[in-house]
Amino acid sequence: MQKNNKISNKQIRALVVSAVVGTGILSLPNRISLILGNDGWIAIILSGILVIGITIIMNKLFYLYPDKDFFEIGRMVLGKWLFNIFLVFFLIYLIVSMAAISRNIAEILKAFLLENTPTEIIIISFILVTTYLSRSEIQVIGRAAYHIYPVVLGFVIILILISLTSVDFTNMLPLFQSNIRNTPKSISLSFFSYTGFEILLFSIPFTERKKETMKSSLMGVGIVIVIYLIIFVLSLSQYGLQSLRRQSFPILSLIKEIDLPGYFIENLDGLMVAIWVIVIFGTMVPFYYSAGKILSNLFNTKEHGLFILPLTPLIYIISLIPENIVQLSKQIRKFINYFGFVSIVFLPIIIYVIGLFKSRGSDR
């Protein structure tokens, strides 16, 4: 590990929030209401608890092996070849996730801001912009996340303030009427709206005060849970269940419909989408950085930046495979879920469990 490449625990918290809160939050209220109806908030909380559990495991993994990074620990515990296979799965998950993020932002911008701009131009522009920061080390990315973090919180606060005049909280009723058999499916769906927290695997080894890292990590996840709950409650309260189920991006639709007294900004939805692009930029960069790190480790090079630009055409091509946003949701998201489960759930858990047994065996 590089000794001068350090990240503070405040930056860890900001990195978790900025990496997780992205395009998924815009469609989450719609997708989760289709399964659990008014009780979608239950799935958000339960999946958040699962993320908290995995976050704790990730932190404890580095307590077991202090002064070692994720790649060193993985090879020590699983062996070189088995761990490399898992890294390939991880890499595929990251690349497809970046393709989905890029296509999502293009569809959102076309729908709400840049109607006449070709999708291809938006995608390639967004990818190329993220390559600049993704070539940097975690110290720089952490600083960028620390500045994007207030933008995320500001967006949510503004959303609350401008929507309070039109929400009807009785639309959340009745509660606890959903089919309990749909709960596992809804948890699975909302869990993958938390993807991005796996950046902890690549950043925890570089924290300045490792004893406080778990607290900062959990605070970051906790903030995301609260944000998701607020977004769901506002969407459901504004539209009601049946209308919410017909809204692909309810938050952006909500902003579009708002009419404030003394309204002096005509295109408020365009302004909010422009701000949201910054937030999604903060989501894309950790994915890109992580993919570069994996490739750098697989090919045993010192600089991960060598692999950032070569990944661009691959991400671009994959992002254009779905014909529309419906196919994007059905095809690519299923692919992400399968590879994501192996990469961000199974892999950290299996490394920690095996590493724990090995460490106890060596103590004996």
UniProtKB/TrEMBL annotation:
It is a multi-pass membrane protein. GO terms for cellular component: membrane. NCBIfam families: 2A0309 (TIGR00912). The chain crosses the membrane at residues 12-29, 41-65, 77-96, 116-134, 146-167, 187-206, 218-241, 271-292, 304-323, 335-357. It is found in: Membrane. Its main location: membrane. The lineage of its organism: Bacteria, Bacillati, Bacillota, Tissierellia, Tissierellales. One of its GO terms (biological process) is spore germination. It comes from the Bacteria. Belongs to the amino acid-polyamine-organocation (APC) superfamily. Spore germination protein (SGP) (TC 2.A.3.9) family. This is Spore germination protein. Keywords: Germination, Membrane, Transmembrane, Transmembrane helix, Transport.
